Amino acid sequence: MQRCLWGVALASTIALGGCASTGSTGSETSQASSPDDPWEGFNRKVFVFNDVLDRYALKPVATGYRTITPDPLQQGVGNFFSNLGEIPTTLNSLLQGKPANAGRSTSRFLVNSTMGLGGLFDIASLMPIEADEEDFGQTLATWGWEDSRYLVLPLLGPSTLRDTSGLPADMAAYPVTYVDDDAVRAGLTALNIVDTRAGLLDQEELIQGDRYRFIRDAYLQRRQFEISDGELGDDPFSADDFEFDDADFAD
Fold it and tell me: Is the pLDDT score of 248 beyond 90?
């Protein structure tokens, strides 16, 4: 089940909101909106705007990056930025009252920053030391803001009102924010975006039907999975008192 959720999550987190065709915004919008998406009309317009930028700018760059960059180097770049993400994970774990996860995330950062040559190699996972990613959107959910409206952000893509409110805190906790040299900071940010997009090129095949709704539902499902730390709730089919009767099989 976890593999399925994360497979869908990759498709839902394409950097600029996915590869939706502009033709999917017509008759689909006339259907009833999801309760989690009362701003669907606005969100679809932003979604199409993001798609144009992705199709003609980001995706070609990401494709070229993956073509010319050796796999070990791509892995190293991904590991480097993932290692930097351990810092906000540690802070948000503490804010959520998860000291064990904060300890594991801190251990991962220390091990990978030293033995992993600045995070280029993920030595911690080989030990193995694993930690759940945490961000301020999840922290707000833990503090009581559980349900939130879906929102598509220009350039940034799928989000919710809650997660958007947490973006300033996430930026403040991310180390690249404090790089003094503007050119270096911009270069690192651009490399992170391109590397992330390149890693998702193969996942686009998972998107089916109305792409806007597929990505929306997948994103919301992934966020719920992260907020609940993978707890999927009770399975009614595993209950001892679950029984079928003849009416269940009637035509």
Answer: no
- Contact assessment for residue 228 and residue 98, using Cβ atoms and an 8 Å cutoff: no
* Burial environment of residue 248 by CB neighbours within 10 A (0 to 12, 13 to 18, 19 or more): exposed
Distance, C-alpha 3 to centroid of its chain: 15
- Of 139, 134, 137, nearest to 150 (Cα)? 137
The two tokens of residue 168 are: 């300033």
The pTM for the full model equals 0.77
Dihedral sign, Cα of residue 154, residue 159, residue 162, residue 166: negative
Q: Residue 209: its pLDDT value, please?
A: 84
- Long-range CB contacts for residues 220-224, cutoff 8 Å, separation at least 24: 220/36, 220/150, 220/160, 221/5, 221/8, 221/9, 221/12, 222/5, 222/6, 222/8, 222/9, 222/12, 222/13, 223/137, 223/138, 223/160, 223/163
pLDDT at position 206:
81
Q: What is the pLDDT of residues 7-32, one digit of tens each?
A: 333 444 443 444 433 344 444 444 55
Predicted confidence (pLDDT) at residue 219 exceeds the cutoff of 90? yes
| CA separation for the pair 50, 63 (Å, rounded) | 17
